[in-house]
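The freezer alarm interrupted the setup, so I double-checked each line after restarting. Inputs confirmed:
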Amino acid sequence: MYSPTIIFEALMNGLMLGAVYALIALGLTLIYGVLHIVNFAHGALLTVAMYLVWLASDRFGLDPYVAILVVTPLMFAIGYCLQRFIIGPASRGSDNGILLATLGLSIVIQNLLLAGFNSDTRTIATDYAFEIVPLGPLLLSLPRVIGLGVSVVTAVLLWAILNRTDIGKAIRAVAKEKLGASLVGINVAHVYAMTFAIGTACLAIAGGLLMPSFYVSPTTGAAFVLVAFTIVVLGGMGSIPGALIGGLLIGVVEAISSLFLGDSLGQIGIFLIFILVLLVKPTGLFGARA
Amino acid sequence: MLEIADLRAGYGGTEVLRGLSLSVGKGEVVAVLGSNGVGKTTLNKVLSGVQPARSGSVRFDGREILGTSARDIVASGLIHVPEGRKIFPNLTILENLELGGYCRPKRVRAGNIEKVFSIFPRLEERTRQYAGTLSGGEQQMLAIGRGLMSEPKLLILDEPSLGLSPLLVEEMFSLIRRLSDDGLPIMLVEQNVMQSLDLASRAFILENGSVALSGDAAELRGNPELKRAYLGL
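Predicted 3D structure, all chains:
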């Protein structure tokens, strides 16, 4: 049996990793909640964000955390344009169309990355990657502490945007009542694109938080998004608090099952939960019944 | 104010509006009547720019609005309170009203909300309540309130009495009269024939996507043709 300190440390590690998962899931669930589709390009866009952070660090010598400030607006713009000028028009107003467009987009992006960067894994060497923050008897990894902090700030910011600004209220309005929104003069295509942009910007932040302790290759994003999708289902499709709580929960599950089953089997716990949720409570923790 | 000429629209192979023409003048309440499926809702959707027309013309305030965006139409002051209310159930009453003023400058918003509250005091009592939890009558009030937030020059009301109790229907019609007395032109689209004719100055009766009968509301009330087509008398 492990000592309580080790278990508690694993718990904290899980929470911190889960916070970054939650950030990825937040974008996915926001897009689902408003556009009513699973964005299949989410993983590929996370990979793009991670490469952009890597480029900023490799070419311009920016610290990955500083790079977030540059990559986030860039990813926001990319997300907006993708939805407004490619996914939206290509879907011709059908939800299936949007779904297929994002799937196609993910394949194109992944192959472009493969062509541009080949399949080597890239990392950013920082002098704080292995730094430890002592918290009482616990030793916590610095990048993960930062990851938790930045994720929390991002979640609060997102909440404020959705509840305090006109565009945020318009996003929530379009999610439930598209026709009503058009009739007050809300441009639904613009709101869709803004939603996609915000979801994509969340990926930029997640990418920046991951890069100091992780690597990127053209398929890296897919693994994270699989976990994020589990979180979205666990939390309830389209639910923002669900994504946050679900993210933290999944992070903890992964950390605990890694501790007991070994690193390579750590993700088993996640997918067991996924299947359990589908069997027992398909609407998720915070999901509204249709 | 609003002039519709030879309007045609439809979905796929079906033509719903077949050369419809009607008009609403300044300060007038015009009733557009007809049973289910004659094209009333399609007409409203075309007027508010969410459904394209095939041909014809719609002039509002001296300007052709066919083919312009829903947003431009709202901005020009042609406001449509849709059938089924279409309020935002997941937003609070206050947020619903705020979004009603989405196309108007923010500085006039607080004043407009006060105005809406003076017309619908019941909404003011529960600004933080989610709109989806309101009763049908309250939702209809909110829908009209949200429409008023857009500063209408002409208000289209689509079936405002639908699904309300007789008492609330009374209340709704007297409210529409009040709005009209304040000088707001209203196009009232209804299935509630007699009450609408009481309220309106003129009326258009639709059948099969075009106007079958039109004229002075008081005269139409006694028209045997209307009674035959409508009431089966």
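Quick read of the result. Residues 27-220 of chain A form one domain.
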